[in-house]
Structure of Forkhead-associated protein:
Amino acid sequence: MYENNSIKKKLYISMQMINVLIAVIMTLLCIIAYYTIEYTYARALIIGVVIVLGTICLINIYIKFQAENKPRDFSRIKTVELVNEDNDIVSLWNIEDKTSLLIGKNTKDEKVNIDLNPSIYSNLVDDKHAVLNYAAGKWFVEDLSSEYGVRIKKRDDDIIYRLVNDTPCEIKCGDILYIAKIKLLLK
């Protein structure tokens, strides 16, 4: 994960250096054209075009800079995605307006919010396996004393942790929940 971010940063810096080089070359070409052209109107046109293009470039740079510096709220989870081994989405649940969600399997007697029956590993899931709770602006997951447990892969450190039964664990956007062998992406 960190190597990927490092490569992206290096690529971004290289692209910015190329952009600066292009700007310098364009400026030199405009200066040469300005001094070699004798017509006043053509000189005024070159100056106008350079000013307009420069203004557009500065506005674009400002917008990109503002977008990059905007902090992302990773505590805001919008969806839970059940994915297969190829990371293809099997089921998707929108949880934006919810405060509590039961994860497990639907039965004749009881319905759960996140039904893992579509997974090939559903036989490893308890009817009431885990619960997601939203409190104080944060999401938490809790293992409901299930046989095969709940694990979480945190986006911050890329380590998989096993949850202690009946103990809430904070989750964020980008984390991955493993309910038994079932993979749930938090986005």
